[in-house]
């Protein structure tokens, strides 16, 4: 299509240790590096998807699949730097979910827009330079722009286009936030998001020509006929609304987990009364409490601290070297 390197996308760890190390995230690549990565990824995504739609229309790989594969590749290539959004809707949804700091939202969105517009501009120059088809450049880009009503491929009205774009935006954001957990790995998470993007675009192709990504919609509308800019509002409002819905759902889940983790009973282990009857000596020494990972919980005085769930973090959310979470790893962290 987390945030921070997919702490921006992965589920939060609900422990004090996670919070204590959060201030060190993102120091390796910095604000500029992360923003540039979003711009490059957005350029790759739009250049590949729109380029296939223009140059190989009706033959070879479909534009929808091209978008999906390009997104997966961009996430693997640049996601460890920026979180791998490449879509303003994903960035907003990740921020609403609490996975991305709000200070990154505007720079990310601007970078995504610039990358997408640059990609279409290069395609414009390339087509214009062709002696035979150069005069049809605007027509080509109009054909890959998003629209509804009279400009829908199958004349779907505004309500239908709005509904489907909202749902698609919510689903793509939900898959992004849910699939990039460390348990899945970077490649698996990127594959899940890329495939979902391709499938959703295939569903939307006969309705709106496949939107979901406001940066992509804006880039083609700028170089298309005037109606594309007039209808562009829908392809911002609908995906962003869907992303906010998905982000709120995931945020509520994180808050529920945080509330449960603060309850000592959540980590407590029920005593084995049968074992106590059979081995009285062993019963005198209470068994250590275990956390959600099945490992003994750390004790501070009489208070038990929950064990950090390493698998609950984003797959790009690597702790910084030397931090309490990663004291031995010499690889620089990518958290921000």
Automatic annotation (TrEMBL):
Residues 276-336 are annotated as: Disordered. It is a multi-pass membrane protein. One of its GO terms (molecular function) is water channel activity. Signal peptide: none annotated. Residues 278-290 have a biased composition (Low complexity). The chain crosses the membrane at residues 40-59, 104-127, 161-180, 187-207, 227-250. Residues 325-336 have a biased composition (Polar residues). Keywords: Cell membrane, Membrane, Transmembrane, Transmembrane helix, Transport. It is found in: Cell membrane. GO terms for cellular component: plasma membrane. Belongs to the MIP/aquaporin (TC 1.A.8) family. This is Aquaporin. It comes from Arthrobacter zhangbolii.
